[in-house]
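Q: Two folds, back to back.
A: First:
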Amino acid sequence: MKIATLLLACFSLLAQNKPAAPAAQKSAFDKATLESYLRHVELWVPQVTVKIDDAKPSTEVPGFFDVWVHASYNNATKDELYYVSKDGHTVIKGAAYNINKNPFQGNIDKLKTDGQPSFGPANAPVTLVVFSDFECPFCKEEASVLRENVAMTFPDKVRVYFKDFPLDSIHPWARTASIAGRCVYKQNPAAFWDYFDWAYQNQEQITADNISAKMQQFAMDKNLDGVQLGRCVDTKASEPDVDRNVADGHVLQVSATPTVFLNGRKLEGGVQWQVLEQLINLELDRTKAAAAASPDKCCEVTLPKLVK
């Protein structure tokens, strides 16, 4: 009995000292796990709604997967791209670069400019694509820089494209203004820039209640068909064009207006003229050097066309 008791005590002691089983490893491929983790990292409050897309093999970071995460609150949406390792343990946020490629080629490939209002020569070595909101005061300042400083200083060197990005959650008439701008563009493409200038010059006087009347006055002043313009705005005939631009902005992770892409380089929140002028000159110098190094290749930045 003593031996049996001793053996039982030994087995009991061994069982107590047995190493604990390792905790189950979490995986970022589990959407609930990833959402919980990112809420902690990003400090998203419970009211923020999170939608996570299915993971897809990354073309930017070999061996990782692209996972798009869409966070929304009060009609405002922010899209972020995260890279997840094959084992689901590592999550990376940020830009990835291939030393053998243009660092902004990813943005250039996603920028769609076909059918967008523009000014400047088609073969300009520098392209500016601006995502803007007609009700945004910072966009008003940037509009002046683009229409005056850029147009006057680089008349044959820069092409500017406009893309709508109304911030519906904070600007009540911005979407209507974007729809109207598209209606003007459809009626008379050259008149769009008159509308662009007019909208920003009169920004402080426009409200959600008077925008229709204001647009009719604009149409009269510019010899446009006011009835056609009013019908186009009332039926929201051009809203799909606005929605496509907003969707393009989300793919490019645009979350503030104005956001300008200078040959693919993302510049958020407006850029002072002195800074923008310097960046344009740097880009012109770079394209000249690239042309001299490869004289058989054109230095024009080519943007993909929108496939309808």
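A: Second:
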Amino acid sequence: MTMQVAMFGTDGLLLASDMRVMKQGLGVRGDYSASKIVINYERGIAISCAQDMVLAKRVAKAVISDLKESDREYPIAAIEKITARIVEGIDRKRVECLIVFSEPSARPFARLFYLQLGLVDSDAHCDQVKRGSVEAGDGENPAIFWRKRYYRKTPIRSLAPLAAHLILSAQKLNNAAIGGGLEMLLSDKAGLFHLDDNSVNALEEASASWDKRIGGLFAGHKQRFTFSQT
């Protein structure tokens, strides 16, 4: 399982993900920490991968390598065709990707597409997300509350704490399948940028502090209650 979120800001787009990858195949069940975002800086494309991680990464790499520049302006049909080719003949296929095209020359400096296969039917479906925010992976995780309640279209650097807290809260609520750390990518007029370890560590420490403080607010609330007989 995975928790990922993409958020449009006033100056670009933010993409964040956890990093826990579940081992697949026979043998003892386990996991390891690895990036779930495939990035090609030269082409200005970043794709987060969820559901079947091996298959989703195959799809992501194929989209990055095989998508023609002539299809980039209207890429939906080409993305669906590439995905269908990669998964052909594979049973029990489930893929979910958030696809970011960096567009430094025009606002909002990035375009976002949501690709899913196997969640509704066996066909690949790709749609453009033109505004707001969207998650992928564990769509029933209660941590999505943070996005639904507090997302506002502000500069992407001010959205980074919200995205980080959503991902890290999701880990606490489903730590059997979500975890392994945090990664985050920003796309603005200067291009694609992957946050370094120092920035990620600071966000993780801040999120832990916010979590503790919020819990303390509830536990520490003092109030004299009155009661009604009716």
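Q: And?
A: DSSP finds five helices and twelve strands in the chain.
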